[in-house]
């Protein structure tokens, strides 16, 4: 079994790579072409853990993960919040006045509109922020730039033409840390989150009654996302984050009540809340 290896989606220098380095310094990182590949690497034992983005403060949820995660058989054992910063990168010797086009992931382009408009650049979508930096380095064209994290500049030997060019300073991505085995913290170890999925029965007021269990048991629900499953408009699955440990008396009671109104309730993980949540 692999040891001290953490998988992520993207190329070296991507934000997911940075998150791995922040949380698990010294671990070997395993870049994967897709989320499915990253989840498979963990499930098959080629990586011990995975660092997967689940939502962004500007772009919203990472939709693919909501579909892949429940069926992956993996467990959430932690979370991490990474402030997202982008630099404008060019080949060695390039100047901003030389630029005609800029390449990056669609979310990065959307989060750096001001600098794109300021220099009248043609925005070109690529599959990955760090991948765009690699391509710009390979092309060697001073008229082409990349929007990518600073780590990408270091890896691919690019010049930083402008730093911190994101439109909003509060841009943050939440990552979940995945493992083949559950690793729940002990009850009382600190502020804890529990993530689970459920599907309500297709009857009137089922969702209202299901959520009522959390209200009556004074459980704070921090996330509620719905999405269709199996292509059925009537089959809606919900992904939920709540504060508390599954073994806490009030949360255990709420989850038990939820069973009465649901076809399926499955806990994906219980883990300590990241300190980012305690900010004023």
List the SSEs and their pairings.
Blueprint: E1 5-9, H1 15-23, E2 28-32, H2 35-43, E3 49-56, E4 60-61, H3 63-68, E5 75-83, E6 87-90, E7 101-105, H4 106-110, H5 113-118, E8 122-126, H6 129-139, E9 144-148, H7 150-156, E10 159-162, E11 172-179, E12 192-200, H8 206-216, E13 221-229, E14 232-243, H9 249-259, E15 262-272
Parallel strand pairs: 1-2, 1-3, 7-8, 7-9
Antiparallel strand pairs: 3-4, 3-11, 5-11, 6-9, 6-10, 12-14, 12-15, 13-14
Enzyme class: lyase
Protein name: prephenate dehydratase
InterPro entries: ACT-like_dom_sf, ACT_dom, Chor_mutase/pphenate_deHydtase, Preph_deHydtase, Preph_deHydtase_CS
What does this structure look like?
The chain contains nine helices and 15 strands. The protein is an alpha/beta fold. The chain folds into three domains: 5-84 and 171-179, Periplasmic binding protein-like II (D-Maltodextrin-Binding Protein, domain 2), CATH 3.40.190.10; 87-162, 3-Layer(aba) Sandwich (D-Maltodextrin-Binding Protein, domain 2), CATH 3.40.190; 192-273, ACT domain (Alpha-Beta Plaits, 2-Layer Sandwich). A hairpin with a 3-residue loop joins strand 3 (49-56) and strand 4. Helix 8 (206-216) runs antiparallel to helix 9 (249-259). The two termini are 42 Å apart. One of its GO terms (cellular component) is cytoplasm. Keywords: Amino-acid biosynthesis, Aromatic amino acid biosynthesis, Lyase, Phenylalanine biosynthesis. It catalyses: prephenate + H(+) = 3-phenylpyruvate + CO2 + H2O.
């Amino acid at each position: 079994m692999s040891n001290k290896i953490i998988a992520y989606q993207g190329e070296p220098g991507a934000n997911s790579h940075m998150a791995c380095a922040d949380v698990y310094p010294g671990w070997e990182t395993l870049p994967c072409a897709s989320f499915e590949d990253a989840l498979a690497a963990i499930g098959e034992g080629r990586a011990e853990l995975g660092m997967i983005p689940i939502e962004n403060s500007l772009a919203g949820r990472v939709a693919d993960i909501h579909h892949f995660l429940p069926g992956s058989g993996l467990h959430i054992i932690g979370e991490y919040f990474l402030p997202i910063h982008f630099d404008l990168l060019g080949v060695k010797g390039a100047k901003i006045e030389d630029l005609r086009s800029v390449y990056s992931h669609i979310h990065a382009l959307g989060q750096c509109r001001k600098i794109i408009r300021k220099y009248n650049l043609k925005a070109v979508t690529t599959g990955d922020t760090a991948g765009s930096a690699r391509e710009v380095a390979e092309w060697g064209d001073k008229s082409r730039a990349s929007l990518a994290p600073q780590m990408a500049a270091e890896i691919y030997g690019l010049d930083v033409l402008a730093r911190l060019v994101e439109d909003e300073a509060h841009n943050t991505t939440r990552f979940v840390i995945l493992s083949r085995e559950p690793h729940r913290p002990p009850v009382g170890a600190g502020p804890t989150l529990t993530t689970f999925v459920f599907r309500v029965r297709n009857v009137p007021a089922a969702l209202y009654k299901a959520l009522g269990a959390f209200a009556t048991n004074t459980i704070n629900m921090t996330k509620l996302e719905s999405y269709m499953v199996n292509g059925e408009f009537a089959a809606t699955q919900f992904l939920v984050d709540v504060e508390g440990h599954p073994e806490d008396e009030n949360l255990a009671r709420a989850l038990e009540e939820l069973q009465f109104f649901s076809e399926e309730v499955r806990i994906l993980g219980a883990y300590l809340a990241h300190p980012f949540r305690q900010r004023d």
